Amino acid sequence: MMRAETAAARPGAFVTLEGVDGAGKTTQVVRLVERLEACGREVVRLREPGGTAISERIRALLLDPGNSEMAPECELLLFEASRAQLVREVIEPALARGAVVVCDRFYDSTHAYQAGGRGFDDALVRRANELGCCGVHPDVTLVLDMDPGRAFERAGARGEHDRMEAEGLALQCRVREDYRQLAEAEPARVRLVDADGAPDEVYARLEETLTAALPGLFEGLAAQESNHD
Ligand code: T5A
Questions:
Q1: For 15-29, b where at least 16 C-beta lie within 10 A, e where not — what string?
Q2: Using a 6 Å cutoff on CB, does residue 138 contact ligand 1?
Q3: Please, which pLDDT band fits residue 31 given cuts at 50, 70 and 90?
Q4: Is 109 close to ligand 1, i.e. is its CB under 6 Å away?
Q5: What is the DSSP string of 140-169?
Q6: Phi/psi at 176 (nearest 5 deg)?
Q7: What pLDDT sits at residue 3?
Q8: 3-state secondary structure of 116
C-alpha cells in the first residue's frame, strides 16, 4: 500500500508555502525558485490545486464561482484527489531524482480551510490528508502570516474573487488562526514568516527562515558534491 517518505530517505527537498488568500505566496514562490536555480538546484515549481492535467481540471471545478452549490464533502475530496495525482505524477519522481519541489499550498491548506475554515473534524481532515499526500510530507512549510483583511484587499485588487475568496473575510480569519495553531503544534516543520512589507523584505525573512530550517539548501550543487568527496 502506501509508504511514508521521510526527508532522510530522499535526495530532494520539499518546501511548501501557505497563507490566507492574497498573502503573497505566488510572489514569493517566484523569488524563491529564481534564487534556488541560481544556486544550481533543479527546482520544480507547483501550485495546489493543480500541477497536472487532471489536477488543473479539478482546480477549475473547485474555484469556479458558478459552483456555489458544491457540498463541503465534495470540496474536501476534490482537493485530496487533485493532490494525490500531483504527488504520484510529479512530486514523488522529482524528489527521487534530487529536485527541490516548491509548492504553492499543500495539505496544510486543507487543514486551514476545510478544518479551520469550514469546521470539518480535525482527525477526519488529517486522515483525508494522509490519503491525498500518498505518504509524502513537506520538509518545511512556510506560512506567510498577515492580517487577512489586508491580504484579502491585495487579492481583491485583481478584480473578481474565486469561489473560495467569495466566502468572505470571516473564513480567512479562521484560516489564519488555524495556520498559527499548526505552527505551534509542529514548530520544526511549520514556520511563520511575517508577510507585511515590500516583497523584497518579505523574501529576505523567508530565506532566513528557510535556511535555518534546511541548512545547505542554498549552498548549491557544487558545494554539496564536494562535501560527498
Ligand atoms: N484551498 C486550497 C482550500 O480551500 N483547500 C486546499 O486544500 C487548497 C490546496 C486556491 C484557493 O483554494 C483554497 C485556498 C484558496 O482560496 P488560489 O488562486 O491558488 O486559490 O489562491 P491563493 O493561493 O490565495 O492565490 P492568490 O493569488 O490569491 O494569493 P497569493 O498567491 O498568496 O498572493 P500573490 O502573490 O498572488 O499576491 C496577491 C496580490 O498582492 C500583491 C501581488 O502583486 C498581487 O497583486 N502582493 C503584494 N503587494 C504588496 N506587498 C507585498 N509584499 C505583496 N506581495 C504580493
A1: bbbbbbbbbbbeebb
A2: no
A3: very high
A4: yes
A5: EEEEEE--HHHHHHHHHTTS---TTGGG-H
A6: -60, -45
A7: 45
A8: helix
Does the C-beta of 24 come closer than 6 Å to ligand 1? yes
Per the model's pLDDT, the better-predicted residue between 11 and 132 turns out to be 132
Strand, helix or coil for residue 12: coil
Per DSSP, the three-state class of 15 is strand
13 CB near ligand 1 (under 6 Å): no
Question: pTM value?
Answer: 0.93
The pick from 17, 25, 133 for probing ligand 1's pocket by mutation, whose C-beta has the most ligand atoms within 8 angstroms, reads 25
Question: What ligand 1 atom has the least distance to the C-alpha of 47?
Answer: 19
Peptide bond between residue 65 and the one before it cis (omega within 30 degrees of 0): no
Amino acid, single-letter form, for residue 8: A
Spacing, Cα 15 to ligand 1 middle (Å): 17
Closest residue by Cα to atom 7, ligand 1, is 110
The Cα 227–Cα 89 span in angstroms is 31
Helices 72-86 and 122-132 cross at an angle (nearest 10°) of: 30
List helix spans (H) across the chain.
25-38, 53-63, 72-86, 92-96, 107-110, 122-132, 148-156, 169-185, 199-213, 221-228
The residues that bridge with 100 in the sheet, in sequence order, are 13, 43
pLDDT (0 to 100) of residue 168 = 83
Cβ–Cβ < 8 Å for 84, 134? yes
CATH class of the domain whose range is 12-223: alpha beta
